[in-house]
Amino acid sequence: MVVALSQSSPVSQENLTLLQRGKPKTSWELMQRLLRTYLYPYRRSFVIAMILMAIAAAMRGLFAHTLQLIFDGVDQKLGMPYMIGVAGLIVGLFSVRGITTYTHNVIMNRVGQRIVTNVQQDMYDHMLGSDLAFFHANASGSLTSRVINDVAIMRSSVSETLLNSFRGGLEFVFLAGVMLYQDWRLSAVVFIVFPVSAYYVARIGKKQRKLSTNTQAATADFSSLLNQTLQGIRHVKAYGNELKEKNRVHDVTESIYRLTVKSVRIAALTGPVMEVISSLAVSSVIVFGYWQVENHYNTPGDLVAFIGSFVLAYDPIKRMGKVNAQFQAGLAAAERIFTLLDLKPTIVDQPNAAVLDVSDYTVSIDDVVFAYHDGTQALDHLSITVPHGKTAAIVGSSGAGKSTIINLIPRFYDVQSGRITVGGRDVRDVTLSSLRSKIALVSQETALFDDTVRANIAYGKTDATAEEIEAAAVAAFADSFIANLPQGYDTMVGEHGVKLSGGQRQRIAIARAMLRNAPILLLDEATSALDNESERAVQAALKHLQQGRTTIVVAHRLSTIVDADQIVVLEQGRVAEQGTHTELLSKQGVYARLYGMQSD
Question: What is the pLDDT of residue 354?
Answer without folding.
Answer: 93
